[in-house]
Amino acid sequence: MPAQRKPRRDAEANRQRLLAAASSAMLREGRNVPLADIAAEAGVGVGTFYRRYPDRDALMRDLEHRAYGLLDGILGDIESRGGSGLDAIEGYLVGACAISDQLFLPLHGAPPLMTEEAVAARRSINRRLETFIESGRGDGTIRAAVNATDIITFTALITQPLSYGPDWNHMARRQIAVFLNGLATDGPTGIPGPAVGATDVEEAFQRRV
Questions:
Q1: Which of 111, 130, 143, 154 has the largest CB neighbor count within 10 A?
Q2: Can you give the pTM of this predicted structure?
Q3: What structural domains and CATH numbers belong to the chain?
Q4: Which of 27, 10, 4, 19 is nearest to 58 (CA)?
Q5: CA-CA distance, 78 to 89, in Å (whole number)?
Q6: In this structure, what is the dihedral angle of CA atoms 94, 98, 101, 105, given to the nearest 10 degrees?
Q7: Backbone phi, then psi, for 142, in 5-degree steps?
Q8: In angstroms, rounded to a whole number, what is the distance separating the alpha carbons of residues 121 and 65?
């Protein structure tokens, strides 16, 4: 089989402009913003847009895959820096907040992708966060009975800013501090059981498709 050709540089540049424009337009006007408006904001013709994304679902799929890639990059950077388990969790939460406008994910209301690539990306994020938690338990910085799903759920909450109210960056950093303080101690009392795991989440996604 011949090797697959890499996308032309201009085609990839168009793709990145379209994804950036879609993120900006959907954040500003909602996810039902006309696709022609996204094309215009990206500076490309409608024909160019539809050649890349024949419908809104195709665009949302690419936005979700892009979001997983961005989170993967944050996790990789944290791993390269080292530090305590609690520091790693803080880095992930702060990094996710910094790209909150680009996170088109199932826990943000996007339809869950069940492709092999998407499921593998979610499992990778879950596995790396579990490694951070285990590291924190080993170095004594994390004592609370939490798992990666708890971290991911909290991330989903703090990366969806309120439409109105005080400065969200400040509010989110306060919530992160409260959450980290809970991880560093025995955690809040009365946590309902049993714990929700990655398998539970994937099964719930499967029921929605």
A1: 154
A2: 0.87
A3: 1-54 (1.10.10), 64-208 (1.10.357.10)
A4: 19
A5: 9
A6: -40
A7: -125, 125
A8: 8
CA angle 96, 18, 92 (to 5 degrees): 10
- Cβ of 151: how many Cβ atoms within 10 Å? 22
Which tens digits make up the pLDDT trace of 131-187?
A: 999 999 999 999 999 999 999 999 999 999 887 777 888 999 999 999 999 999 877
**CA separation for the pair 136, 184 (Å, rounded):** 9
- Which residue in 96, 58, 69, 108 sits closest to 176, CA to CA? 96
Other CB atoms within 10 Å distance of the CB of residue 75:
22
Contact 156, 107 (CB under 8 A): yes
Cα(60)–Cα(85) distance, rounded to whole angstroms? 33
The span from the CA of 86 to the CA of 97, in Å, is 17
Here the tokens at position 198 are 């990655």
The beta strands (E) that lie in 46-174 are given as: none
The DSSP call for residue 196 is P
Predicted confidence (pLDDT) per residue in 96-130, tens digit:
999 998 999 998 888 888 999 999 999 999 999 99
Two tokens, residue 98: 């910094």
